[in-house]
Amino acid sequence: MTEWFSRGELIEAISANDRGLQYGDGLFETIAIRDGELRLWEYHLARLRKGCETLGFWMPSDDVLLEGVMHALRESESTEIAAVAKIIITAGEGSRGYGRTGNTPPSTLFAVFPAAPHQAAAYRDGIDLALCRTRLAVGSVAAGLKTLNRLEQVLARTEFAETELIEGLTMDADDNIICGTMSNVFFIKDRMIHTPSLDRCGVEGVMRRHVIACLEKQGIATNIRRIKIAEMSDFDEVFISNSQFGVLPVRRCTDVRWGVADRTREIMSVMADNGVAECLS
């Protein structure tokens, strides 16, 4: 069983009055640990910082968060080269009712899990995606953030939980493709790269940010825009990104098929050169 820590101490339970449990009033991050290093740590901190500011509660210092993760890593039973750290920050304990009065001390929890890497064949041959019926609500103040409210993703993922598929695409109510249940998606047409706008819903993944930044350094622009589901068959290649697996090519979603071709391979090579070694699989 995974051990959780708070303030350097092993904890067995959290209070039933914690606002994270009561209302999902909090945020979380899952950080890839590779050879003892926290990958994209600064990006994770930036998203947490933005989330805490948006939700209106105090964020522990960067040093406190780093020490919390490293303590959990030292105390965990994970001796693998690859592991996953999870940070949960909630608004802390509070009285009954939605409203939050004052800036109560947050609850901050840390844990480390063994990583579950994908087979080399997924990187080489690509994966198939489900197209989820569950739609993402638009217009949330928390759009782009990784809050504890993940019911839409839970319901969407449940749709294909008993299949061999590892990911599914989600849309909003206007038939715009948004993201995967745990990933972001990129489309390629005539070597141009497109990714859905996340200004109304979805999660701005740290690997998505890293992909866009790495490509920009190569002089390759990413077109961030609305992408309708009806456009899906117009693209030549598709890949998804996630903080844990990096980049995975996609070969099919429902009856639409794509090739795992040169542009995706080029991007995977760029990512491998920028700290995402899985892309060499």
Helix/strand layout:
Layout: E1 4-6, E2 9-11, H1 19-23, E3 26-34, E4 37-38, H2 41-55, H3 62-75, E5 82-90, E6 107-114, H4 120-125, E7 127-136, H5 151-158, E8 168-172, E9 177-180, E10 184-189, E11 192-196, H6 206-217, E12 222-225, E13 237-242, E14 246-253, E15 256-257, H7 262-272
Parallel strand pairs: 7-8, 7-14, 11-12
Antiparallel strand pairs: 1-2, 3-4, 3-5, 5-6, 8-9, 10-11, 10-13, 13-14, 14-15
How many DSSP helices? Answer: 7
Tally of discrete structural domains: 2
Q: Calculate the mean pLDDT score and round it.
A: 92
Query: What's the architecture of the largest domain, going by CATH?
Result: Alpha-Beta Barrel
Structure description:
This protein is an alpha+beta fold. It folds into 2 domains: 4-114, Aminotransferase class 4, branched-chain amino acid transferase, N-terminal domain (D-amino Acid Aminotransferase, Chain A, domain 1), CATH 3.30.470; 120-280, D-amino Acid Aminotransferase, Chain A, domain 2 (Alpha-Beta Barrel), CATH 3.20.10. The chain is built from 7 helices and 15 strands. Strands 7, 8, 9, 10, 11, 12, 13, 14 and 15 form a 9-stranded mixed β-sheet that branches. Strands 4-3-5-6 form a 4-stranded antiparallel β-sheet. The protein has a two-stranded antiparallel sheet with strand order 1-2. The longest helix is centred in the first third of the chain and has 15 residues, at 41-55. The two termini are 30 Å apart. The mean pLDDT is 92.
